[in-house]
Design a protein that fits this description.
Layout: H1 30-45, H2 52-73, H3 80-111, H4 115-120, H5 122-152, H6 175-190, H7 197-217, H8 225-256, H9 259-283, H10 285-305, H11 314-334, H12 344-370, H13 406-429, H14 437-463, H15 469-474, H16 476-502, H17 511-514, E1 522-523, H18 543-553, E2 561-566, H19 573-581, H20 584-589, E3 592-597, H21 602-613, H22 622-629, E4 634-641, H23 646-656, E5 665-670, H24 673-677, E6 684-688, H25 694-704, H26 713-726, H27 730-741, H28 747-755, H29 757-776, H30 780-788, E7 798-799, H31 800-809, H32 826-839, E8 844-848, E9 854-858, H33 861-876, H34 881-884, E10 896-899, H35 906-912, H36 922-929, E11 934-937, H37 945-959, E12 968-970, E13 991-993, E14 1014-1016, E15 1036-1038, E16 1075-1081, E17 1099-1105, H38 1111-1126, E18 1133-1139, E19 1147-1148, E20 1161-1165, E21 1167-1168, E22 1183-1187, H39 1195-1198, E23 1207-1210, E24 1219-1222, E25 1232-1236, E26 1243-1246, E27 1256-1260, E28 1280-1284, H40 1288-1294, H41 1297-1300, E29 1305-1308
Parallel strand pairs: 1-6, 2-5, 2-6, 3-4, 4-5, 10-11, 11-12, 12-13, 13-14, 14-15, 15-16, 16-17, 17-18, 18-20, 19-21, 20-22, 22-23, 23-25, 24-26, 25-27, 27-28, 28-29
Antiparallel strand pairs: 7-9, 8-9
Length: 1309
């Protein structure tokens, strides 16, 4: 039996979740429990047994049954885990009742016997009592297990204290005996008959010494030096004594028998131990298997009760993920039938696997105690009917049970501890300023332990993880050192857990738990945000926002809806609300409109509303006015809601003006994002106002700039720099336009604005409230992601595709555990983080794509100046001197190194300085760079010097044991960096960015970077990938399409005959690949049974080209590609090109898109075999580009049912017909339409009501088109009409649109 640690003070974060109940009827087995307790009382009261130990055991069982009954009676809900647990308790009670009943009946029969018969049946009576004792011991174990499971998985919603015991696990170590048998067998075979005495003594010494050393070493880890010295002395004496006795026995036996026969006697004892171990292990199977099945059933029910809608803290998320992983592993193990015959190894290893699995389950339970995880509050919101766990597929490589033992199991264990520690630090960060001194010290102690774990894991990864089995076996010293370090770490974790309970730490109540809600608000966001501004726009940048908000206000919903406009001060909330309030369409829609500013107290606000409704005060009181208003369709705008206005708003919504379902609306503006979410409901909408992008900022600036002459190029450059430093804040942009309107148009005058003290003061004042909310309202995980943007240069537009994968590589994204089957990919979580930070006005969009999506972003200048440079220490825990200062490295830990070519940075001299000075000082380099996690270079200078300097620096640093923890190596735009071979030592590398480096070949060391997640080779000269690419765990692979980057064929397993001796190999290392972009496909590319096994791809870009004169082979290849695409259910973006041997567009094979339900973006270049395939395109398409498709049927008719299509590009020869017809009410979401090089197009017809949302139209090189369609005049939403290389008459015709469509800008090239 193993003691369970006291479940004392917990660092739990209670998550209050409502649960639907099904009544509180008492369970049917309640009477059974009462009956069992009565029978046990009878056994105790009538002195049926006299053994004190048995009496004590019966009393304990009775008390535990009463405790079980109390827990069951106090259950407030009957969710699935409670039903499973009650069934288990019922089974235990029934078994206990049968045992007690049979024992009482036996004793009653015994009491009625005569004395002679009692003498005869005395052995039977003794055996009966002994059997009863064993069964009661088993029952006590089962009850303790049930109590322990109720605590672990929150059955009954309570945390249980007490001295509980877990399941007995049979922990017999058989390795010494097995080795002894092997040694004796070898000696028996190879020792000659005329062996000398020394060899015989050696034969007697080895097995004895091995056995005693291993057995005596258990439990000595925590002994002090003196006790260990005494133990070693005793051990040596025992070895010598037992070896001498063993040697004398061999000598004596050898006098009568040959030496070989005498040596056989040496095999008896260890061989006997092996047999006994196997028998005991097999006998323990039933109990361990039963216990494991109960745990798995309850864990499965627990996971069913846990839904994504429940708000969990980070520790709960990680722990639930670990429970899910163990459950899936266990279910795949017990899915196999219990072996009863056949393979001996299977009959031995199955009980051992069950034992290991049970230990892992109990370890998960113990972690819950250490880290104070509250499972009682992890509940579902609706009752889910119990369902049996799905049977795993035994043949699946991903679901089959994988045995992990020895050192690898210990490493896996501390990795789990590290995950929970990281989650603990996140939860602690949520309570900055709220923790007391004891808790801060304890968290810091856990942080120190976490750093030790990271160091040990790094040693293991670098020295042992990827070694072959033979090399791994001979590294005994390394394994011993790492094992000792892990044992020390586990002991420190236990000590920290005991200290936490002994000193009564406070509970961590995170903000996530505080703000949890069963409902959420609906975010109002435009379907697309094009980088266009209406020519006659009243308010620059608000066209899309006004359209989205008005659509909601004018909807047919009868219930009263609340719409919030959220943004920091200066984003234009009030201006936008006025724009909508004064719109004629809005005014005509509502019977009554009211505009008020938020004020206190509530009665004053209500009086203001009443006064605007009835200025003549004909009503006796404001309440009468508001009651009358409630029966009308009204629009009330309240500007400037603060957190202190919550009571006022509650009064307005619930009492003063009740909802009478008249279709009324409330439009509220606030700076507080959290305030809007406090009124979460299905009729609550939030529209976040984002900072303006660079282009919109410039348009706003120039529209309000009062100058007499066009700006010169140099002034434009300075002006754009000023706009960049305004951070996209409209109030700052307008202030700058007003200021510079009064200034002279000189470069010196404009440049001086940036250096003025007043500019910095204005910036600080405008962003002051935002700077405060970052540390008070922004969760720690978002603060860490936000701070990462500060590593980039201030004016640098950070590509979103780059930022997202960097966040993932840096482990800044906290998502569902990796073991979860239906987890959300971390990239999707990172994109959500980015969107939230943009909505909170903490990240500025620098540039948008042509479809309106975010292309690049940056940290606003004011946040960089007044927050990032000061907050790095609190965000990243330790300062980063290499990034922004010259701090003493002995007092700080450098995690991130960025090369900005800034001579004031510490790293500048190391990278670009004299190679014979600091760079060759290994001790100095190690002081600075031993803990670096990321290295980003922004050295985009021309020539070979940057690449050589980077290569030399990396080589010297890695040889000095620096950068060994490196996760990110981003060398984008560094010209031909000389990557040293030593980079192969960077076993932790997750991201390798070589885009725009123009490298000509990929170094061979890439095969060693097996943990690489992102490999970016776009815009390089690399055309061949190594075969080791199949053995990597890549998630994103960007290749250079221009230079024919090819995928190598999958290499055959050369070690298939000895695979059982090598580390376990995955069936498909690239199964997690999500992005495969720029791949060149020819006849030799391994698509069939190769690339087509990669079924989780979301972004696929292929350039198919025939390289030989035989068309049949390439035709089959294209057909295989089409089959591959058809089964990509997760595919979101597809770029497919087909060319012949001369590089000209060729046939393009496409098949059913039935499974591509997530496909939103598609680019096709090549001749389509049939026009009808267009009508089969998925309705999910948002952006579609066709080129050289040679369509003979009108594409507008084939594509008219794509209701979600927003961008349509018909490029060169995509349509070879003469007439194109757009019907009314078709393409309801189309915003962008491009017609390029349609040489045969002569007539284009647009019916009234067609293209109702079109904003951008571009027509290029359509030589036969003589005039624009007449129906285009009815498209009032059009903002830009661009004509390039068109007939003169059509250009003349286009000018009249300036008058007909006042918001449309006509551009003719």
């Amino acid at each position: 039996m193993r003691e369970i640690s006291q479940f004392g003070m917990n660092l739990n974060t209670g998550v209050s979740v409502s649960v639907e109940t099904q009544g509180e009827a008492k369970p049917s087995w309640s009477s059974t429990t009462t009956s069992v307790v009565e029978k046990l009382d009878r056994i105790l009261s009538q002195t049926i047994v006299n053994d004190d130990k048995v009496i004590e055991m019966v009393e304990r069982v009775k008390n535990q049954l009463i405790e079980l009954q109390n827990i069951a009676n106090n259950l407030k809900s009957t969710n699935e885990r409670e039903n499973v647990w009650l069934e288990e308790v019922k089974e235990v009670c029934n078994y206990t009742q049968s045992v007690a009943t049979n024992f009482i009946l036996g004793k009653e029969r015994w009491s009625k016997m005569g004395w002679l018969k009692k003498v005869v049946y005395l052995p039977v009576n003794y055996a009966s009592e002994n059997q009863f004792k064993k069964k009661m011991k088993y029952i006590r174990t089962q009850i303790e297990d049930a109590l322990h499971r109720s605590f672990t998985f929150g059955v009954g919603g309570q945390e249980r204290m007490g001295d509980n015991k877990q399941t007995t696990i049979f922990p017999v170590e058989i390795i010494p005996e097995v080795i002894s048998v092997g040694i004796e067998f070898v000696l028996y075979v190879y020792i000659p008959d005329n062996v000398n005495q020394a060899l015989l003594f050696f034969n007697a010494l080895i097995p004895v010494a091995l056995n005693l050393v291993v057995k005596s070493g258990r439990g000595e880890e925590n002994s002090n030096k003196e006790r260990r010295r005494i133990a070693i002395s005793k051990l040596v004496a025992r070895i010598l004594i037992y070896s001498f006795i063993n040697y004398m026995l061999i000598i004596i036996v050898s006098q009568f028998l040959p030496v070989r026969v005498a040596l056989l006697f040496q095999l008896i004892i260890p061989f006997y131990d092996v047999i006994v171990w196997i028998v005991k292990l097999w006998r323990s199977l039933n109990k361990n298997l039963k216990c494991t099945q109960r745990y798995l059933a309850l864990m499965h029910a627990f996971l069913n009760d846990t839904t994504e809608s429940v708000t969990l803290n980070e520790r709960q998320k990680v722990w639930v993920g670990q429970v899910r992983a163990v459950t899936q592993n266990g279910q795949s193990l017990i899915a196999f039938p219990t072996p009863t015959a056949g393979c001996l190894s299977r009959r031995i290893m199955f009980p051992k696997d069950i034992e290991c699995l049970l230990k892992e389950i109990l370890n998960i339970s113990h972690r819950k105690t250490i880290y104070g995880i509250d499972a009682a509050n992890i509940q579902q919101q609706k009752l889910v009917p119990a369902a049996p766990p799905p049977p795993p597929v035994a043949s699946s490589s991903t679901s089959s049970y994988r045995r992990v033992t020895g050192l690898k199991h210990k490493v896996l264990s501390i990795r789990g501890e590290k995950e929970l520690m990281d989650a603990l630090f996140v939860d602690a960060g949520e309570m900055e300023g709220e923790l007391d001194g004891r808790s801060r010290i304890w968290v810091q102690q856990m942080r120190d332990i976490s750093n030790e774990i990271a160091s040990v894991l790094n040693d293991y990864n670098a020295k042992l993880e990827h070694e072959l089995i033979l090399k791994y076996f001979f590294k005994c010293k390394t394994r011993s050192i790492i094992r000792k370090k892990i044992d020390d770490i586990l002991n420190k974790i236990e000590d920290a857990s005991r200290r936490r309970k002994a000193y009564g730490m406070v509970q961590f109540q995170t903000r996530a738990a505080d703000t949890s809600s069963s409902t959420t608000v609906q975010i109002l966001r435009g379907r697309t945000q094009l980088p266009l501004v209406a020519k006659e726009s009243r308010v620059i940048g608000f066209d899309d926002e006004a359209h989205v908000l008005m659509a909601q206000l004018l909807s047919d919903e009868k219930r009263r809806c609340i719409t919030w406009i959220v943004g920091i001060g200066g984003t234009g909330k009030t201006t936008l609300a006025k724009l909508i309030f004064e719109d004629k369409t809005v005014a005509d829609h509502f019977e009554c409109q009211v505009w008020v500013s938020s004020c206190k107290p509530a009665q004053r606000l209500l009086q203001q509303i009443a006064n605007q409704i009835t200025p003549d005060s004909s009503f006796s009181s404001s309440s009468d006015v508001l009651q009358t208003l409630a029966h009308k369709k009204y629009l009330i705008v309240i500007d400037g809601i603060e957190e202190t206005s919550k009571v006022i708003l509650d009064t307005l919504l619930s009492k003063a003006i009740p909802d009478m379902s008249t279709g009324s609306r409330l439009l509220l503006t606030t700076r507080k994002t959290n305030l809007a979410h406090q009124y979460a409901a299905d009729t609550t909408f939030v529209h976040p106002l984002q900072l303006l992008d660079d282009e919109t900022s410039w348009v706003l600036f120039t529209r309000h700039l009062k100058v007499d002459s066009p700006l010169e190029e140099e002034l434009v450059k300075v002006g754009r720099e000023i706009m960049m430093k305004c951070g996209g804040l409209p109030s700052q942009i307008l202030k700058m336009s007003c200021l510079l309107s009064d200034a002279t148009l000189t470069l010196e005058e404009w440049s001086s604005v940036l250096g003025r003290q007043q500019f910095n003061e204005d910036q600080k004042q405008s962003w002051s409230e935002t700077l405060k909310t970052i540390n008070t309202d922004l969760p720690l995980y978002l603060r860490r992601c936000l701070s990462y943007l500060g590593l980039f240069p201030s004016e640098f537009g950070i590509p979103v595709r780059r930022l997202v994968v960097l966040w993932v590589a840096e482990s800044l994204v906290h998502h569902a555990a990796e073991q979860e089957q239906d987890q959300e990919p971390p990239e999707h979580v990172a994109e959500r983080y980015l969107t939230e930070l943009i909505d909170r006005n903490l990240i500025q969009i620098a540039k948008r794509k042509h479809n309106g999506k975010v292309k690049t972003c940056r940290l606003p200048y004011a946040l960089r100046q007044f927050w990032w440079t000061k907050a790095n220490e609190s965000i990243f825990l330790k300062p980063d001197p290499a990034t922004y200062s010259n701090s003493d490295p002995k007092n700080s830990i450098i995690r991130w190194v960025t090369d900005h070519l800034n001579t004031n940075h510490i790293c500048y001299d190391h990278i670009h300085g004299d190679a014979d000075s600091t760079r060759n000082d290994s001790a100095s380099l190690r002081t600075y760079y031993k803990d670096v996690r990321s290295f980003l270079s922004f050295d985009a200078r021309e020539g070979s010097k940057p690449g050589q300097e980077i290569g030399n620096f990396m080589k010297v640093s890695i040889l000095a044991d620096c950068f060994l923890l490196l996760r990110v190596l981003d060398l984008e735009r560094v010209y031909k960096p000389k990557l040293p071979k030593t980079i192969a030592r960077l076993s932790q590398l997750r991201y390798l960015g070589l885009r725009w480096t123009y490298l000509e070949s990929l170094p061979s060391f890439i095969s060693k970077l097996l943990k690489l997640q992102t490999l970016d080779l776009k815009h390089t000269y690399i055309h061949t990938l190594p075969t080791s690419i199949w053995e990597m765990e890549l998630r994103h692979l960007f290749l250079s399409e221009t230079f024919h980057s090819r995928f190598p064929p999958q290499q055959k397993d050369r070690f298939s005959l000895i695979r059982f001796l090598l580390p376990q190999r995955r069936d498909n290392f690239l199964q997690d690949l999500q992005t495969l972009w720029g791949l060149f496909v020819d006849e030799e590319t391994p698509v069939k049974n190769g690339l087509d096994t990669l079924v989780n791809i979301t972004k696929l870009g292929l350039a198919c080209q025939q390289m030989s004169l035989e068309q049949e082979a390439m035709t089959k290849q294209l057909d295989t590609v089409a089959d591959w695409i058809a089964k990509l259910e997760q595919l979101q973006s597809l770029r497919l090109k087909s060319r012949d041997e001369k590089g000209k567009p060729w046939i393009l094979c496409l098949k059913s898109f039935r499974n591509n339900v997530n496909l939103t973006d598609m680019y096709l270049l090549g001749k389509l075999s049939s026009s009808s395939i267009l009508s089969q395109f998925p309705n999910s398409l948002v952006e579609l580009t066709l080129s050289h498709s040679k369509l003979e049927k009108d594409p507008m008719q084939l594509l008219k049912e794509l209701s979600n299509l927003q961008t349509l590009c018909l490029l060169a020869d995509s349509y070879v017909g003469q007439t194109m017809h757009c019907q009314a009410q078709k393409f309801p979401q189309l915003h962008v339409l491009k017609l390029w090089v349609l040489q045969q197009l002569e007539e284009w017809i647009i019916e009234p009501g067609a293209l109702p949302c079109l904003r951008q139209l571009e027509i290029r090189s359509c030589s036969q088109l003589k005039m624009l369609p007449y129906g285009l005049m009815n498209v009032n939403t059009l903002l830009e009409l661009k004509l390039t290389n068109m007939q003169e008459e059509i250009n003349v015709d286009a000018h009249k649109y300036n008058n007909i469509l006042p918001n449309c800008q006509v551009v003719i090239n």
